[in-house]
Amino acid sequence: MKPDRFSFFFWAVLAAWLGGASAAEYAPPEAATGLGPAGRVQGRHGMVAAANPLAVKAGMAMLEAGGNAVDAAVAVQMVLNLVEPQSSGIGGGAFLLHYSKDGKISAFDGREVAPAADTPALFLDAKGRPLKFYDAVIGGRSVGVPGTLRMLEAAHRKYGKLPWATLFGPAIALCEQGFPVSPRLHALLLRDKFLPLQEKAKTYFYHADGSPRAVGEKLSNPELAGVFREIAKGGADAFYTGKIARDVVAAVRGQQKNPGLMTEADLSGYRAVERSPVCGNYRAYRLCGMPPPSSGGVAVLQILGMLSRFDMGSQPESLQAVHLMAEAERLAFADRDRYLADPDFESVPLSGLIDPGYLASRSALIRDERAMEKVYPGKPPGSARLKTEGGSAMEFHSTSQISVVDRWGNAVSMTTSIEDGFGSRVMVDGFLLNNELTDFSFDPEREGKPVANRVEPGKRPRSSMSPTFVFDEKGRLYAVLGSPGGPFIIDIVAKTLIAMIDWHLGMADAIALPNVGSIGGPVLLEKGTELEDLKFPLEKLGHEVRIMDLNSGVHGVERIPSGWEGGADPRREGIVLGY
Q1: Residue 462 has what pLDDT?
Q2: Residues 167-205 pLDDT 10s
Q3: Residue 569 vs residues 94, 156, 215, 398, 535: alpha-carbon distances, Å
Q4: Is residue 141 within 8 Å of residue 258, measured between CB atoms?
Q5: Could you give the CA distance from residue 169 to residue 342 in angstroms, rounded to a whole number?
Q6: What is the model's pTM?
Q7: Count of CB atoms within 10 A of residue 97's CB?
Q8: Which stretch of DSSP H or E encloses residue 492?
Q9: What is the Cα–Cα distance from 344 to 350, expressed in whole angstroms?
Q10: pLDDT at res. 398
Q11: Among candidates 370, 322, 367, 362, which has minimal Cα distance to 339?
Q12: CA pair distance 306, 494, nearest whole angstrom
């Protein structure tokens, strides 16, 4: 049967296969103690790693039907929209790195944009003071123009193999047949106090008595199935124009609290952007990541570049290694807050920030025996023309990572998000809308100067998403990875890379190591892990230390002699499948 002639029978069989998951299938094999990996799987030809078993199976179905990495990523994303709605979907945005078998790397920017009517004062109250985070999030004000579908369509048009409509089959089948509510989704519904305030979301996610859908309870979404059918038939235009676009605008503008200013013209005018990846070296490896408006690729390269003069030792996460990592991360985040924003609006000194000489000068500030008292942004080459100041913003952890390698050697690393858990909580036509505009700096000025990451019409908020490719000394694709985690994504990806390159761990073991790092302030140690023992020694070095939950969701694939091996983060519900 040819891939472009899938019958109703095929999708009925596939639906039964996909829908066969039980609640037990979602349980991580081990707690996140660093004592062992979850989801180590090998495959000779290719792999799919993502945050939900049903989504991974959908991606594998595309590969087995003759599709490639882009085809699989589209199918995975559509199923994630249904089964992991708190994290990503067509109401949000994403960054996608694509590696083709001829060696070309493409970086697709599907980041949301601010509506044309938004101003730098978007998140200020009547007295000109920044709003509290959730006062800004809930409702239409925080909703950026979604970018995921336009980006996926652009990537598919350039690199996809299967027909676009085919990629929506698994998600449509699951929408109509229903899927079992996972333990993670149930737990998040149980503690979210804002979602039940939205009538459509309340009706879908909760029972009449207000209790959340139970673990293992079958949940269907015929409204979303209808949306997927329209997009499968009409392409992304079916989302960005017509009825669906009108519904999105009505939902955003019609909120009683925090109505937004999005228009149909904002949606129809959205464009995904193909950018050049940002690349650099660490040891014998070459790494490529996402350029601005993501800060992830630059910051990861800065951290590793500053650490390259140090012997990170053979002992994973030793006191000295954690100290050095935290110091490099503090310096990288100072530069991030100062310089990184949407490059279409701000003059970002991109090459200067990853210049080896500049990174060597920044690294010289790191001392083996003592933490820096204060950390300031540097002055990279090309920064003199920058007239604005930086500005930090709140970023939360509702994000997901998709990593795929196909039989031809093509690969996708895609990080996708709606920002906070369940985004803005606004639900329309069966899917949730993002709150990505709260990734902008709330205060548009600092010390009388405009903040680089301030809100402006048509601007993309800065992100920390860090989809990453790693190439070995022979130039071969060695690893594909990324993670959710808000601004801590940068530290999580850096930790995983250091574990693989310096400590010679496989992907699954590197992912399972306890999370550690700094996002510019205290050293953060993952609660409930052996890293807690480092709190006092780090404080003796002069660090402020906090122990907290550091929930990541790394999904990655690495090259091994027999093909590929993948890893799924034991802190989430994802799996890896190979073929």
Answers
A1: 97
A2: 999 999 999 999 999 999 999 999 999 999 999 999 999
A3: 20, 27, 21, 15, 24
A4: yes
A5: 35
A6: 0.93
A7: 26
A8: helix 489-501
A9: 13
A10: 80
A11: 362
A12: 12
The yes-or-no verdict on residue 5 having pLDDT over 50 is no
State both tokens at 349. Answer: 């000194």
The predicted model gives 441-449 an average pLDDT of 92
Quote the CA–CA distance of 207 and 77 in Å, as a whole number.
Answer: 27
- For tokens 């019958």, the residue is 7
Q: Is 399 a catalytic residue?
A: yes
Spatial distance between the Cα atoms of 251 and 187, rounded to a whole number of angstroms: 26
Residues 6+ apart with CB under 8 A from 354: 278, 280, 298, 301, 302, 305
Instruction: List pLDDT tens digits, range 88-103.
Output: 999 999 999 999 999 9
Interval 5-21 mean pLDDT? 44
| 3-class SS of residue 218 | strand
What is the per-residue DSSP string for 417-459? EEESTTTTS-EETTEEPP-GGGGS-SSSEETTEEBTT---TTP
Of 399, 415, 416, 496, the active-site residue reads: 399
Q: CA–CA separation, 579 vs 577, rounded Å?
A: 7
- DSSP states of 308-332 as a string? TTS---SSTT-HHHHHHHHHHHHHH
- Count the Cβ atoms, other than its own, within 10 Å of residue 262: 27
Asked if the bond preceding 293 is cis, omega within 30° of 0, the reply is yes
In single-letter form, the type of residue at position 321 comes to: A
Nearest to 389 by CA among 376, 400, 404: 376
**Does residue 261 register a pLDDT over 50?**
yes
